[in-house]
Write a structure and sequence with these properties.
single chain; 457 residues; 3-stranded antiparallel beta sheet; 16 helices; flat; JetA
Length: 457
């Protein structure tokens, strides 16, 4: 792709991708079929500028003809790993490695399909979430697929905002009104506004399912049955390999779906700001283009030329009016803004704060401080509960306060506290957690059984 004949190989690989991965593609096409496709592609191109590739083996027996160029292209693709040959009896079959095929498919998608249909992506995610909510044990793969599509959808939404910014910067640096208008309609209106942005404000807005998706995802996150069934289904369907990884994967997928559809409005607002700025820029250009006087430079040039050729200034005709609208008239100058009177000075008065509001703020701060996760508080809670014991099951812990409940609710996920700095790392060095398969259901909480083990340091 970086060689001297890269344009030729792009066309050849595009045709071969359809041959290997099209709807009517054979599993392993014959060598003759592949060569025929390459020859057909090269027959539509001008090969006078064919250059020798770096590192390519010399083959003096290959002539500079259509068949010779096809042989060189086929040999080069085999040499670089795009194609492989397999012996099938007396015939030679050609295969494209799976990883190479996926790479080529992604490159072609980037080059040919910049815009995507938001409605189809959001509709698919919505349908997958409905299936997960109805049958979590059988539709766990639908949750993983919905999270993957949500990540791709979010990246494409960010790329749309970046593309609008790039177009905005390019148009703002252009001072020629004709080029400005041409770039506006070709780069912005056709590429973004009509293809992508316009769909966001139609009756069939793809984001009309956003509230329902968020409601269903949050319902799944706080459903004990779904949170128990989905990790087991992830393990059974080989999406993950361990129980801890299954729990973490389910949390990540649900958090991704909730975060993506919660932050859609912020990205749409940013896109709308770029759109408004571009439209103001073009509107100003059109307004000033309407006030210009085309042909003034030519009339001035003709008048100066006539004055230069004339010997007697008295023979010149009366001066021509160069502009049909005088530069200064009662309608042309800008009307000055009348000065405003300064505001009357006022004495600042200090009001006493409302004691009810102060008490409420203090209660909120105390509440947030008590429910804030602190690895040091978790470590203190473990030392108090375990004492000198080496192991302690979840049903043996005692919860006497809000701080104890917050610490207990994070014991099953000690490995995630390692991101909380030195205190979280010290906590993971001292203790380990082993998940169990039973469940603990009490009047106040329900969770999966686990065992805390004190490590030997």
């Amino acid at each position: 792709m970086a060689g001297a004949n890269r344009n030729i190989y792009v066309n050849v690989l595009t045709r071969l991708h359809a041959l290997f991965f099209g709807t009517s593609a054979a599993l392993l096409p014959a060598y003759e079929t592949v060569r025929s496709e390459i020859e057909e592609v090269l027959s539509d191109m001008t090969l006078q500028d064919w250059q020798s590739e770096e590192g390519e083996e010399s083959a003096p027996d290959i002539p500079n003809t259509q068949l010779g160029y096809a042989a060189r292209a086929y040999r080069r693709l085999r040499q670089c790993g795009w194609l492989e040959e397999e012996q099938d009896g007396y015939r030679i079959r050609v295969a494209m490695p799976p990883d190479v095929g996926r790479l080529l498919g992604n490159l072609l998608e980037i080059a040919q399909q910049r815009n995507r249909l938001y409605g189809g992506i959001v509709q698919t995610i919505h349908n997958n979430i409905i299936q997960v909510q109805l049958a979590p044990a059988d539709q766990a793969a639908a949750l993983s697929e919905a999270a993957r599509q949500a990540r791709e959808f979010f990246l494409h939404l960010r790329s749309l905002a970046y593309g609008l910014r790039e177009v905005s910067q390019r148009l703002r640096s252009e001072h020629d009104p004709r080029i400005l208008l041409g770039g506006f309609f070709s780069d912005f209106v056709e590429e973004f506004l009509v293809a992508d942005y316009k769909t966001l404000y139609t009756r069939d807005n793809p984001f009309r399912y956003r509230a329902e998706i968020l409601s269903k995802v949050r319902s799944i996150r706080f459903s004990h049955d779904a949170r128990t069934t989905l990790p087991e289904a992830y393990l059974r369907q080989r999406i993950v390999r361990s129980e801890i990884e299954a729990l973490r994967r389910v949390d990540d997928d649900l958090a991704t779906l909730e975060q993506v559809f919660s932050e859609v409005d912020a990205h749409l607002e940013r896109i709308n700001e770029f759109r408004a700025g571009l439209e103001r820029r073009v509107a100003e250009a059109v307004r000033y283009m309407d006030k210009t006087q085309p042909g003034a430079a030519a009339r001035i040039a003709r008048l100066v030329k006539r004055a230069a050729l004339s010997d007697d200034a008295a023979t010149l005709t009366a001066p021509h009016r160069l502009m049909r609208v005088l530069p200064f008239s009662p309608r042309s100058p800008r009307t000055p803004v009348s000065p405003k009177r300064p505001p009357e000075p006022e004495r600042l008065r200090r009001t006493e704060p409302d004691p009810v509001r102060l008490a409420r703020q203090k209660a909120i701060r105390n509440y947030l401080a008590r429910r804030r996760l602190d690895p040091r508080a978790v470590e203190t809670y473990l030392d108090q509960q375990m004492g000198s014991r080496q192991e302690l099951r979840a049903q043996e812990f005692c919860i006497e306060s809000v701080e104890d409940f917050v610490a207990f609710s994070h014991l099953s996920q000690l490995s995630q506290l390692i991101r909380s700095g030195e205190s979280g790392q010290r906590l993971n060095r001292r203790f380990d957690v082993r998940a169990g398969m039973a469940r603990i259901d009490t009047e106040w909480l329900a969770c999966r059984d686990f065992t805390i083990i004190r490590k030997t340091i």
